[in-house]
Amino acid sequence: MDSIQHYRHLLKDSIRKQINFRASDQHRGVAIPPLQEPFDQELPRINLPDRKSWSTAIEKTDLTDAMGNRRSRRNYSDKWLTIEELAFLLWATQGQRSPGKEPSHFRTVPSAGARHSFETYLFINRVEKVPPGVYRYLPLSHELVFLYSTDDSSQTRLSNAVFGQKFIAKGAVVFVWATVPYRMEWRYLQAAHRVILLDAGHVCQNLYLACEAIQAGTCAIAAYDQEAMDELILVDGEEQFTVYLAPVGKY
Known about the structure:
Elements: H1 3-18, E1 45-47, H2 51-55, H3 63-69, H4 83-94, E2 118-124, E3 133-138, E4 143-148, H5 152-161, E5 173-179, H6 182-188, H7 192-213, E6 216-218, H8 226-232, E7 241-250
Antiparallel strand pairs: 1-4, 2-3, 2-5, 3-4, 5-7, 6-7
Helix pairs in contact: 3-7, 4-7, 5-8, 6-7
């Protein structure tokens, strides 16, 4: 057996050992974890425009053009996003395909076992009808829940958390995806950590393509201080932690 065949054999053997469904919490009858983390019901919430509302405000874009124009963009103008554009981007990245018609785990992005381990947090700087601050997206109700207000010092903290990449904080909005790993572990055990990272790519690619439809740009970011980012979005770093982020701005 040459080295390549040996590597393939080891990889297949590793996958077989990791995906042992009989040992999973799912197989043992443990209740399925929720697809949306609980939140303080006293916090302010903002209803987002539904698909019928924002689809009339979003110019139709040819998919071939969107894919051909897609690139990482780091320079953003001072233009504001409309709330309809933000609603569209959130629907494109974590929204339900057909609310009320399909199960809530049928989303616009693929996910291993339809487990959707991500929570979406937003640093909002320039979005019409949305005060600046840090928010969390609630995909099951298509709402934003307000976490706290931001100011110039908050932008400095964000820039410091991404190792001085100042362009990130200058976006109209910054998407931050945090994973709740148990949603995947419940079914996939150790293999969960591999598919979580694959799912992150699915989500961010949808953001890239959706941005092209509204003449906006984004840039995927994986260089950040873990503890600092988790602190900024108010997660514990254990049961939920940052895995990816991307600023969005008009160009």
